[in-house]
Amino acid sequence: MILAGDIGGTKTYLALYSPELSLLVSAIYPSQNYPSLFPILQQFLSEHVVLSSKITAVCLGIAGTICAENCTLPNLPHWSSISLTALKQFFKLEQVKLLNDLEAMGWGISRITAGQIHVLQMGQSHENGNAVLLAAGTGLGESCLYWDGSQHLPIATEGGHSDFAPRNTLEIGLLQYLTRYYPRVSYERVLSGTGLVHIYQYLCELHQHTPLVGVQTALQQGADPSALITELGLAKADYLCQESLRVFVSIYGAEAGNFALKFMGRAGVYLGGGIAPKILPQMMDGTFIQAFNDKGRFAGLMQTIPVSVILMPEVGLWGAAHYARVSFSDSSREQLS
Q1: Would the pLDDT of 331 be above 80?
Q2: What is the Cα–Cα distance from 3 to 23, expressed in whole angstroms?
Q3: Residue 124 in contact with residue 306, Cβ under 8 Å?
Q4: In angstroms, rounded to a whole number, what is the distance separating the alpha carbons of residues 64 and 73?
């Protein structure tokens, strides 16, 4: 039996899969409410004692940087780093693996069916080329899906932490606004839930507009007002909320295009994470694709690249399980069977 996990800055999603990768049980825990990963794991195991005793392999996709079998989570600063050695000791297993969350999501791409994506640009399929994956949510994750001649193999990156590159006067002003609060501004400071709030606050200042009471109250209480901004923007109930979504989507499209160019992602661009499905009407209005394709002499190439939003929220979880299934040794696979 396989324990798979998708550990993010907002929620931790755990599940048990059969050797055939059928989902048996799953649970979601608010990451911020726990001091580290281990109490979450302990709670999940205690809630499923009978099944947990049969676990023979563990794979966790984590929204963090993995170096020398240790993972740090930038969006969970109160958590200590996660050690592969400590996880093996906790589970009393050798078959334990840590993956970057976008790497795990990449392993799950093969699970996606036509009904679980929304195509933003049909393009021209080049299956024997690289693909890329971006996921804006609590943070911004990016990974490359390298074509090795027979399959796509995910490569983890920290591209979401590369320097934000403004393209016009409005975005230059956004960068200047953000430098007041951050010594360095990465794409994650813009393309995330917090980033949407930053964009809204910047536009309020630019237009000399007092932020909405609901937004101000949420910020004063330490809550996240991005859901309110999204709701009012999609409903076209508030101009600056609507404009915030437009700016967000335009920058998202531009960065997706940047990433596709860097890795020649001609086999497709996949957009995962929690934000894109929630703002799908805004993603569909042409703003994203216009920014994606706006690459000067390479505009023609960009128009040939398929672009899709992933509508399957558990793609990273299944990807972690899939990796555990196919990547351990023959003896481990015999145990899994």
Answers
A1: no
A2: 10
A3: yes
A4: 4
> The pTM is what?
0.93
* DSSP, residue by residue, 68-135: TTEEE-TT-TTSPPEEHHHHHHHHT-S-EEEEEHHHHHHHHGGG--GGGEEEEE-----TTS-EEEEE
d(CA 241, CA 221): 20
Q: Give which of 293, 226, 285 is closest to 253, Cα–Cα.
A: 293
Q: What was the pLDDT predicted at 333?
A: 45
Cβ-count burial 18-36 (b if 16+ within 10 Å, e if not): eeebeeeebeebebeebee
Asked if residues 326 and 154 have their Cβ atoms less than 8 Å apart, the reply is: no
| Tokens of residue 146, six digits | 């390298």
Query: Under the phi-then-psi rule, with left for phi > 0, alpha for psi from -120 to 50, and beta for the rest, what region is 185?
Result: beta
Q: Of 48, 121, 45, 36, which is closest to residue 80 (Cα–Cα)? A: 36
Domains in the chain: boundaries: 2-107+314-336, 113-311
Tell which CATH classification among 3.60.21.10, 3.40.50.300, 3.20.20.70, 3.40.367.20 matches the domain 113-311: 3.40.367.20
Note whether 226 and 192 are within 8 A (CB): no
Residues 10, 12, 13, 16, Cα dihedral to 10°: 180
pLDDT in tens, 155-183: 999 999 999 999 999 999 999 999 999 99
HSE (side-chain half, CA atoms, 13 Å) at 267: 18
Classify domain 2-107+314-336 at the CATH class level: alpha beta
